[in-house]
Amino acid sequence: MFNKILIANRGEIALRVLRACRELGIQTVAVHSTADSEAMHVKLADESVCIGPPASRDSYLNIHQIVAACEITGADAIHPGYGFLSENAKFADILEAHNIAFIGPKADHIRIMGDKIEAKRTAMRLGIPVVPGSEGGVTDPDDAKRVAAEIGYPVIIKAAAGGGGRGMKVAKNEGELKTAFQTARSEAGAAFGDDAVYIEKYLAKPRHIEVQVVGDGQGNAIHLGERDCSLQRRHQKVWEEANSPALNSDAREKIGAICSEAVAEMGYSGAGTVEFLYENGEFYFIEMNTRLQVEHPVTEAITGIDLVHEQIRVASGSGLSVQQNEIEFQGHAIECRINAENARTFVPSPGTITHFHTPGGLGVRVDSGVYSGYRIPPYYDSLIGKLIVHGRNRVECLMRLRRALDEFVVDGIDTTLPLFRDLVSDKDIADGKYDIHWLEHYLAND
């Protein structure tokens, strides 16, 4: 096991990792920008190092400074959290060269899954069902027209190196294809420095289902069930739950087994998430995230397995703590992402939190790094906390969530709490009848 772990992140995920390290008896190092000097994880870590000014490129993305912080403090491993450098293969390579353990997968696996075209090829080779589409990148408008005609309209053009909805355009017919194709390439080049795109069949009303996997890098892997992340705004997840209201136990076990067997064959090490669109009883692979997900707590709630513990165990060579036949799924869990944003306009709302009170009681968890008097800086993601609620079934979970949302108080800034108070009382949500477009339609008609 490691002696000291440097946490190369900020906010709630940095505090989440710190708590796991404490439980395992591992010393912690917090790195922070000048804007985060009063952050909770900085206050609670055994050591802290300032790595630069507020801009991410000068601090949390500054590989040289982070490696230097490891050398100064003697940290023998780095946990990257999510975002920032968590899926940066170059970072993983540099850490290996400096004999610092990266608590994540091998750099080669990050590269493969970071390239959406290569990821799809790999998924097909491993027997994971994929969305019909181009076999590789498409650079010529005539080729785009041919591919679209073969798979049938509507189609979606996606950035090969992309994510978060950037470089992604839909064409409902041939007349829309040329503009959508050119726009997607332009956006992809501007956002990722790579204008390669690929084309897939556009599914009209799919759900977004993701399967949590963990591999030990030695050919063994487990799955921890699925999460339903269909409630999204501009391709950004808002509300996640486990298990999905759309799946039965047979479908759950089948797709879980496919994913765990695939990552075992890859020799994958650490936590990962295989993401799908799900429509009419069929799964279609879209990507694999080679890191811990924001929504991992709902999986922890229904399995009782600490995913950060598993990441640390695997990276240290201790292997997995459980086998597949030992995993039991209990009840239902829902996570709401609480952002410092206006609940209607979604305009960011940095500023000072004058009062912060979190809900409690059976089955209620809040992951947050903020506190009363804390100033939300304007430089980073607007996520300030996650409310996770667990119940014996989905009905009880929704009842508990409604109560917890009523107890949650954040004064001084705007938050998305009012949105969730509305959603938890909506009939479609109660019935589990929603897809990836549902929330945007709901917001447009509000």
Q: Which residues form runs of ≥5 with pLDDT under 50? A: none
Strand content: 25-35%
Tally of helical segments: 15
The CATH H-level superfamily of the largest domain is ATP-grasp fold, B domain
Task: Characterize the largest beta sheet: strand count, sense, and whether it forms a barrel.
Answer: 8 strands, antiparallel
- Strand order of the biggest β-sheet: 13-12-9-10-11-14-19-17
Q: How many DSSP E strands?
A: 20
Shape: globular
Q: Report the span from N to C terminus.
A: 52 Å
What's the CATH class of the largest domain, please?
A: Alpha Beta
| Helix/strand class | alpha+beta
Blueprint of the fold:
Elements: E1 4-7, H1 11-23, E2 27-33, H2 40-44, E3 47-52, H3 63-73, E4 77-79, H4 89-97, E5 101-102, H5 107-114, H6 116-125, H7 141-151, E6 155-159, E7 168-171, H8 174-192, E8 197-201, E9 207-216, E10 221-233, E11 236-242, H9 249-266, E12 269-279, E13 282-289, H10 296-303, H11 307-315, E14 332-339, E15 351-352, E16 355-357, E17 364-368, E18 375-376, E19 383-391, H12 394-407, E20 409-411, H13 417-423, H14 427-431, H15 438-444
Parallel strand pairs: 1-2, 1-4, 2-3, 4-5
Antiparallel strand pairs: 6-7, 6-8, 9-10, 9-12, 10-11, 11-14, 12-13, 14-19, 15-18, 16-20, 17-19
Helix pairs in contact: 4-5, 7-8
